[in-house]
Write a structure and sequence with these properties.
DNA-binding transcription factor activity; 12 strands; 305 residues; Arc Repressor Mutant, subunit A; alpha/beta; D-Maltodextrin-Binding Protein, domain 2; rod-shaped; HTH-type_LysR_regulators; WH-like_DNA-bd_sf; WH_DNA-bd_sf
Length: 305
């Protein structure tokens, strides 16, 4: 009997608790939606597993002392299990749940507001926590389980821990004052970057490292005069006439008055935005819901970013 607990089923324990509560096999059967013989069979199986009688059968049904003790413990366990199952079902049906998302600074300022608005409108019962960070910190946030998902300008570097899903294909634009000599152009050749006073955003970001390699392959080396971390700093410098900022096209969502964005060409410099997650960790229903909203919003509004 040492391993008899492994053979005891939840149905058997529910039957015992119901018999204890109703003092009747018939009423217990009605409560559980079973036949009276099925209840009797479940109790017999349970008694065989524990090696002793648990129910006193007669005109009035009652439990032995050990039967009452087991029923009391089973009742508490069943309540805990039922509560846990209800929580799981509520989460799967999006009646409750939470998701934590690590977002790079640029994406947080330009893309996240639209996602949050749509997410809360579609799933008001779900909680959402934003982890604002540098894009190169997103992996650590995922690995440490501080975040379920990540959104940012990440490039697939063959990391088997992280799974990336492209959301939008952004590209680099030059952001300049309206009175800049190039502001009237429809596009600007990337070769002029060597002559302009350039403001670079977060040079250690994976997207920028890829862009630098792309430019070097074309023998183009921008004249970088300022390196900044925050999008607001870059825009402030542009407004002050300190140069042109090399920013993703979707940064125009936060562009202040008096500034114009001109596309860079020859070559087009990619600035993709990806959804990141741990490759070996399944997403919760809330995280799946957030990912679905992010896809819909970004691919709908920024497909040609």
């Amino acid at each position: 009997m040492e391993n008899s607990a492994e053979a005891v089923s939840l149905r058997q324990l529910r039957a015992l608790v119901s018999v204890a509560d109703t003092a009747s096999f018939t009423i217990a059967a009605d409560q559980l939606g079973l036949s009276q013989p099925s209840i009797s069979h479940l109790i017999r199986r349970l008694e065989n597993e524990v090696g002793q009688a648990l129910v006193i059968r007669g005109r009035e049904v009652s439990l032995t002392a050990q039967g009452r003790a087991l029923a009391d413990m089973a009742r508490r366990s069943i309540m805990t299990i039922d509560s846990a199952l209800k929580e799981c079902r509520d989460q799967s049906q999006l009646r409750t749940g939470s998701v934590s998302v690590a977002v790079g600074h640029v994406s947080a300022a330009t893309l996240l507001p639209q996602i949050l608005h749509a997410f809360h409108a579609q799933h008001p019962a779900l909680e959402m926590q934003v982890v604002d960070c540098m894009v190169e910190q997103i992996k650590n946030k995922l690995v440490s389980h501080e975040a379920d998902l990540g959104i940012g300008a990440m490039v697939d570097g063959g990391d088997t821990q992280i799974m990336l899903e492209n959301l939008i294909d952004g590209s680099v634009h030059l952001f300049m004052r309206d009175d800049h000599p190039l502001a009237a152009r429809k596009q600007v050749d990337a070769k002029v970057l060597a002559e302009l006073r350039c403001i670079q955003l977060n040079p250690q970001a994976p997207a920028w490292l890829a862009i630098s390699r792309q430019l070097a392959a074309e023998d183009i080396f921008p004249r970088i005069e300022q390196r900044v971390i925050l999008l607001s700093t870059a825009f402030g410098m542009v407004q002050a006439g300190m140069g042109v900022a090399m920013l993703p096209s979707f940064a125009s969502a936060q562009m202040p008055p008096g500034i114009k964005a001109v596309p860079l060409r020859n070559p087009v410099l990619d600035w993709p935005v990806s959804l990141a997650r741990l490759a070996n960790r399944p997403l919760s229903p809330a995280a799946q819901a957030f990912a679905a909203v992010a896809r819909t919003v970004l691919r709908g509004q920024f497909a040609r970013a």
